[in-house]
Amino acid sequence: MNPILSVKNVNYSYHTQDGETPALSNISFDIMPGSFTCIVGPSGCGKSTLLSLISGLLAPDEGEIYIKGSPAADSAMHIGYMLQKDSLFEWRSVYKNVLLGLETRKSCTPEKKELVNQMLDTYGLGNFKNVKPSQLSGGMRQRAAIIRTLALEPDILLLDEPFSALDYQTRLEVSDDIYRILKEQDKTAILVTHDISEAIAMGDRVIVLSARPGHINKIIDINFDSLKEDRTPFSARSSPEFPDYFNMIWKELVQ
Amino acid sequence: MSEQQKIYLKKQKRYKTTITLLRFLLFAGFLILWEAAARLGWIEAFIFSSPTRIAKCFYKMVMDGSIFKHTAITLGETFLSFGIIIVFGIGAALLLWLYTPLSDVLEPYLVVLNSLPKSALAPMLIVWLGNNAKAIIVTAVSVAIFGTVLNIYTSFADTDPDKIKLMKTFGGNRFQILTKLVLPASLNTIISNMKVNIGLCLVGVIIGEFLAARAGLGYLIIYNSQIFSMDPIAMSIIILCIISIILFKIIDLLQKIAKKLS
Predict the structure, then answer these.
(1) C-alpha to C-alpha distances, A251 to A202, A242, A244, nearest whole angstrom
(2) Contact B49, B234 (CB under 8 A)
(3) I need a labelling partner for B122 at 20 to 30 A (CA). Which of A66, A194, B133, B234 fits?
(4) CA B87, CA B97: separation in Å to the nearest integer?
């Protein structure tokens, strides 16, 4: 199987008046279709920058990024990007919010609207189509945000700490929700987080980045043999393998 | 509904009624006191006028139609300058948002022009543009335009960067970011700005009419002050009060409609 995404020897620096800040150094990895990869690292290690590079919002100083074999800058259509904040537009109804990406890409066809309606029903927002986002709970807002992203039918989903603004209980619930949604839709996902537990709970694979300038310390495959088909982010947290993975990643981060 | 809820609602209602009543009493009391003071000779009615004198003056000017002419002219000038400010204010703010170097270059000038007391410009504008309505409208526009541009541009520039990033991840171009995000996000600021502007326009128009008019409420005030005829002045001021209330209410209504539609 060919990787859906290849990152090859990528370097990136930020430039300001005060000088140059190297953010990422020599990053290389491949992502297979249908996989769930988590990227963990200390604050400021360039995790979000990496997602911006993959999505084509930024161009790498050196190195290449290929999506389905073509350069990332030309493949923005294949990417769905979910940001830290849900960024729902208060002046639009939930339904109009979910259609925002399709409208912007001028691909708001009846079939896509049908798909969006189905997703809203499936993920418990069917009765909230015409309300304003302010009337939704934190978890519902995140679900609306992911439907907005999925409506574009992206091949790869980039999730930039999408749960960090939520309180802990909601966070666990939404993690389960989003995980289930992504698995049902068989999407390839890359999740950036600074929360080790979250990375282990959700990922098939965890990429550990070092402090700035971020480079890859280690790539760890996550397998919960004890859970098999019952794996959810929540059940993973209480599995016997979980503490071992936690310690392994913790050691990589503090070394 | 529980007993407590009923009591609570009743209390709320009584409070509201009391407030309305007190407002009305304050106004009526003021009128009565003014009238009585003038009649009893506590104040000189020739200088301070009185409600009945104002009413008589109003009646006279309604009968000969002159009040409609003056009010219409002031209103017309106000609306025209308001329209110009809205169109040019939003237009200029858009240009500044679209071309960052332009806003970087112009910002200090806008700040200075905004803090300049615009009534100081009026005499010069009249010399340049002549003793006519054009000078009055330009004066009124100059009072509010710089503040409007700054205010609306700041609101555009303050658009949530995360939301802009979101639009970019959708592949949105600058025009789409503008129409789908920046403008709707600033709608409230624009309408609040209109609320301030309609008042400022009236101020500008009156300043202009003081200096350069042959008609209008400002003209009525300045002309009558020169011949010591205080009743038309007081009447004009009251009409101006009523006009500003009505204009403010219109914008308020617009805001409510905009909120419902969005």
Answers:
(1) 19, 14, 11
(2) yes
(3) B234
(4) 15
CB contact (8 A) between residue A101 and residue B170: yes
Q: What span, in angstroms and rounded, lies between the C-alpha atoms of B192 and B215?
A: 31
Q: Tokens in use for B231?
A: 């009743």
Residue with tokens 């970019």: B168
Classify domain B53-261 at the CATH topology level: MetI-like fold (1.10.3720)
Q: Which amino acid is at B50?
A: S
Tens digits of residue pLDDT in B140-198: 999 999 999 999 999 999 999 999 999 988 888 889 999 999 999 998 899 989 988 99
A40 near A51, Cβ under 8 Å? Answer: no
> Residue A7 burial (CB < 10 Å; 0-12/13-18/19+)?
buried
Beta strands A205-209; A216-221: pairing state: antiparallel
State the total domains in chain A: 1
Q: Which two three-digit tokens encode residue B200?
A: 């400022």
Query: What CA–CA distance (Å, rounded) separates A151 from A113?
Result: 8
Q: How far is A176 from chain B (nearest CA, A)?
A: 24
Q: What is the DSSP string of A9-74?
A: EEEEEEEETTEEEEEEEEEEEEE-TT-EEEEE--TTSSHHHHHHHHTTSS--SEEEEEETTEEGGG
Chain A residues at the B interface, defined by Cβ less than 8 Å, are 55, 57, 76-77, 79-81, 83-85, 87, 89, 91-92, 100-101, 103-105, 152
**Using a CB-CB distance cutoff of 8 angstroms, which residues of chain A are in contact with residue B163?**
87, 89
Interface predicted TM-score (ipTM): 0.84
- CATH code at A202? 3.40.50.300
Bridge partners for A6 per DSSP: A30, A66
A248 lies in some domain: yes
DSSP category for residue B179? I
Q: Domain range for residue A24?
A: 5-86+155-254
What's the token pair of residue A94? 């939930």
